[in-house]
Fold this protein.
Amino acid sequence: MPELPEVETVRRELLPALAGVRIAHVDVRRAGLRRPFPRHFADRLTGATPTALTRRGKFIQVALSTDETLVIHLGMSGAFRIVTPDAPDEDRELRYTHDHVVLTMADGALVVYNDPRRFGVLDLVKAGGLARYAPLSTLGPEPLDAGFDGAALAAACAGKRTPIKVALLDQRVVAGVGNIYASEALHHARISPRRRAGALATPRGAPREAAHVLAGSIKHVLALAIARHERAYRRSPFLVYEREGAACPRRRCEGVIRRITQAGRSTYYCPVCQR
DNA sequence: CCGCTGTCCTGCCAGC
DNA sequence: TGCTGGCAGGACAGCG
């Protein structure tokens, strides 16, 4: 379930299992995911100790004692399962259908990567090469950083003729927003997903009011989602996503949530309060 | 360069 | 019950 909030939650869950614990053994159970795993993948991980876990957009970066970084992207269906050192043997031996990589940590824990659709990425990058690693180096601003604001959003959207919803999915515009939180943020900001992205800026590129509002809404929906996942919510908390036909949740709004298709993806919005 | 479509892969669900 | 088609939270190649 991997947009920025879910990826951040995964990072926090992996942190105590990986950081400072040597990787004792690596079981790579297929040749790759969408692409082959990097050369000598298991050998390069074995014996390494993760020193830090950071997130950039939807990527997790695991810095290793070997001066390489394990770059992780969960794609559509990637997930980690952690089997703690004190788990019973039957849990340790359990193998699920799409368990592709199993890390055995020196403390006995297992860190298992499972990915039915195999759209994920597990890659190794030399420390010096990270800045030039294309998938990361082309990412736009980090939405929860203080530096991300209406001006940054307007600058990234200036001149774009594509609808704002489609622009928000472009990781070069803002990193980490996906199909759910694009709809949620636009609803929070009361902005129609059909509006032209370029309309967030004046012809000279200065931010319009809508850019400030939308930047704030992006921060709000992402931060709230991270907080909810930390408390292990499981019910769907979305206000418009997958709620076609439901009453708009905005107070005193009489609208009904609609689903439309933009650039081949579903968009949910309220045609009454989003303009 | 820009924006749109198709594609990678499996699972699930609605409808027949 | 079983089959089929459509859709799914991502990203990129290839096209006009």
